[in-house]
Batch of 4 targets.
Target 1
Amino acid sequence: MTREFTGWHMLALMVGGFGIIIAVNLTLAWNAIATFPGLEARNSYAVSQTFQADRAAQNALNWDVSADITGGVLTVDILDHRGAPLQAEITRAILGQATNVSMDTVPEFTWTGTQYTAPVSMTEGYWNLRLELIAPDGTKFRRRFPITAK
């Protein structure tokens, strides 16, 4: 004998189905907010007021800066306008994934005479190196380098 499918059965299916959808959406929204790295600047308006001048001063340095990771070693090359290695003061360096701050690290750089190197341990994926330098004349140099770890 088969049981009759009633309105209560349909209600239970609808509540259960939509309950699963809502639970999944809330879980995904919670994880998106909990792992977001946050703001780049506390007051974007104040930063925007000096953006053009800061960019012009940074471009006037005419530096060629590059970052790469090979064999667990992060290297940062800073070359001046003649292509000669340049030693600048690193004021801030953060290596992390683009969407998750839980794995952010601060590399401990050492100057080798031609480039900066730091040992790093990271998983595969898309990473960013956010680097801030100060030139010998006091000009701030900021750059974000995307790095793909293999």
Target 2
Amino acid sequence: MKLTTAILICVTALVVLGIPTMAVADSDRGKQLAMQGDGSGAPCSACHGPNGEGNAAGAFPVIAGLNERYLFRTMQAYQSGTRVNPVMSMNIDNFAEQDLLDLAAYYANLPSPAPAAPSASAEQLALGEKIALQGDWDAYIPPCASCHGPNNQGVNENFPAIAGQHASYIKQQVQAWQQGQRTSDPVQLMEAIAKRLSDEQLDAVAAYLASQPAAQQ
């Protein structure tokens, strides 16, 4: 019953957010923008790597292989200020909507990188696996997979893949939800869940998710 309730919440979020139709995107042009930028800021590859693999040390996320619409909407959110990140905002603030569409198409079509070898202990990974796949219902924490799909490999633009993402980025973003710095979820689903996670649980689930293979497009 609890899992069913969590799934219903996720479905409700989909209805609230809606899925508008995307215009035609040019992934070849997106590659050019990703590698060279538009002349007003650093190219995407400077932070996210030549293949969209990100940088764990800098908490720059993996973006290769993520849902195209999710990537597009995220860049729009940085432009509008719905999501706040000074580095992202200043480097894409001059991009037109078509530029964002092209970039999203390019990165969505790249293969997801292999996960990094886990540095966490077996005990910590086991706790992370439990949170990610089973949740902690005593603390009203549903499993990540109830929204982010089987093996947390993503469902659509509203629930992106989180398997294979850098642990540093996962932790950073969950903390942003906890502190009210991320407010782009109209149903406040992630904010509510994030605030129930202990530091121990957050470290564990971030380490576990980072060790898992991402979905291949």
Target 3
Amino acid sequence: MKRGMVIFLKVAVVVIGIVVGSLCAFALPPLATHTAELYPEFAYLHYPVLLGLYATVIPFFFALIQAWRLLKNIEINHAFSTLSISALGRIKYCAGIIGTFYVIGMIALMTQSALHPGIAIIGLVILFSSIVIMLFTAVLQQLLNGVVQMKTENDLTI
């Protein structure tokens, strides 16, 4: 992979991290307060929903760190290594955790009759995105694992 492409992807990872971090720090709390004031009958869900959203940020940032490590492996020509396979596995598990959190959150909101259709659509988009990321990283992980095993077998026969 060209060096410029790896640098572009690293910049994208950093920008995504900054945008998500600043949204969590500066936009999410006022938005939650405004929503609680707008719908006082659901004000008791203010902090549980915030806690749930912040809980999903932890595996998201962990996955970003793993993506950064994967890009570093690609940069130093170690794309086909066990380190890359394990980074893909961690990204896959983070996507699964995020998807699970959103399913639990949407079920919890449905039981409280507080799941607005707009929130449900956003939650479903995030859920299906997590599923796609899980499937994509699982396929990449299997492909890389096969390449690494073939490389190891070739090294042993020589």
Target 4
Amino acid sequence: MTVGTALMAIYGFTALLGMGVGSSVNAAYPVAQALVTPEEISDSVGFTSVAQSFGITFFLAVAGSIFQNTAVKNVSPLLSEYSVQQIRSLAAGTYSTEYQTLPEAARASVVAAIVASIKNVWYLLLAASAACFILSLFLGRNKLFA
């Protein structure tokens, strides 16, 4: 995950990121089941599911906040006459009403500012994946099935 995120400047590495996420997300279920008694398996699966759902929701909320806030920060100097709400609508994409009414000269700079805002979301993912990698070094190295 860390390598795929760090190399995000090249779109093809999204597949590498997906492989890292896919291999680590599902690993929690069999490991959790192997570490508990048979009576606790359903509890461990439920807990793992809730924890993963919470993590996804939390990081989506943080990523959305980072994107929206940096988009407003990056676009505001370019369009000082626009309100914050109009700038947030611009960040929704090129199909928004605000984008369609922008003068041609302003469109390229606004798109560049929004793309710069998207990059900040990848920094969050890079930090999270690096933290997971570092913390994985401290996990126990035990055989689950002898």
